[in-house]
Amino acid sequence: MTRKKLKLAFIEKDTARKLAYKNRKNSLLKKVDELTTLCGINACAIIFGPYDPQPEIWPSSSGVQDVLSKFLTTPEFDQRKKMVTQESFLKQRVEKAEKKLRQQLRDNKEKETTMLMFQSLNAGGIVPNDSSVAGLNDLTWMIDKNLREIGRRIESIDSNNNNHQNQNENQVATAQSQEQLQVDPPLPLLPPPPPPPPPTVSDIDEVEMMSRLGWI
Description:
Layout: H1 14-39, E1 45-47, E2 56-58, H2 61-73, H3 76-80, H4 86-123, H5 133-183, H6 201-212
Antiparallel strand pairs: 1-2
Helix pairs in contact: 4-5
C-alpha cells in the first residue's frame, strides 16, 4: 500500500498538530543519530517547541558545544559553502517551481499547436481560431519541424534499403563465384619435361672429327 502524499500546510487542529510535532521530533533525532553513526560526522540538534518547557538537545550539552566550537573555528568560506537560510531555501524552491511551470507551458503550447496542425490538415486549410500572429508562427514552426522529421525518416529508410540492396548484390556475386568454381574445376598441373640426355663418348668423337675436317 502506497503512502499518502503529505500536504505541507499548517495543521489547524491543536491535538493533531501536537501529535505531529512529537512524532517528527523523535524521527528527526533518530535520523541525526543514524547520520552520525553511519557517516561518522559531527552533528547536533536543538529543538525548541511550544509544547516543551526546555529546548530538546541532542546528544548532550557538551556534545552541542563541541560541534558549535568546531563550526566556529572553520573558515567562513567553508561555513557558507553549503549553508542556506530560510530566504535562500524558499528562493530556490520558487525558482525550481517557475522553471517547471515554464516547461509545462511550453509542452502545453506544443500540444495545442500539434492539434491545430492536424485539424488544419484534415480540413484542407487553416482552421479558424483565436490564434494571433504568434500563434500562426508557432503553427508554421510545428509544420516545418514535422517536415524535417519526415525528411530524416525518408533518408533513413532509403539508406537502409540501399544497404540491404548492396548486401543482396554481394551475396549473389559470392554465390555465382562459388558456382563457377564448382562447375569449372582448376586444370591439373602437368609435370615438367625430362632433361635432355647427356652426350655419349661416340657423339663427342664424331663432333671433334667433323671439326677437324672443316665440316663445322
